[in-house]
Design brief:
Blueprint (H helix, E strand, L loop, with lengths): L1 H16 L4 H13 L3 H14 L4 H13 L3 H12 L6 H14 L4
Helix pairs in contact: 1-2, 2-3, 3-4, 4-5, 5-6
């Protein structure tokens, strides 16, 4: 944990000098997820989407962060966009099924 804490701090310092660096910000968000800091990861994913609004990988990671925080309906807004697309993957179906089960909302 201490190693990740130091890495998180280093990434935050690097991002203060280069706030638009999407690669660093993704790495930070992934480390935050590993630390169960889902709300902080959510903020980083949102920031990334401000920079690159159509990053499907980040949208899906954001939906996962919402699910980890039990923000089911917000997660479903993102996931339903994937479900309506031409090629939803298994991860989208699993995440959607969990969110639908938690909300009691059938699809």
């Amino acid at each position: 944990m201490l190693e990740n804490d130091a890495l998180i701090q280093a990434l935050r310092e690097a991002l203060s000098a280069a706030p638009q660096n999407v690669i660093l910000r993704k790495h930070l968000a992934e480390l935050l997820i590993q630390q169960n800091a889902y709300a902080e990861a959510e903020k980083e994913y949102r920031h990334i989407l401000d920079i690159t609004p159509h990053d499907r990988e980040v949208e899906l990671a954001l939906a996962d962060a919402f699910i980890q925080q039990e923000k089911w309906m917000v997660a479903l807004v993102i996931l339903e966009k994937f479900l309506q697309g031409t090629d939803p993957n298994a991860r989208v179906f699993l995440m959607s099924a969990r969110a639908y089960a938690e909300t009691g909302r059938p699809k």
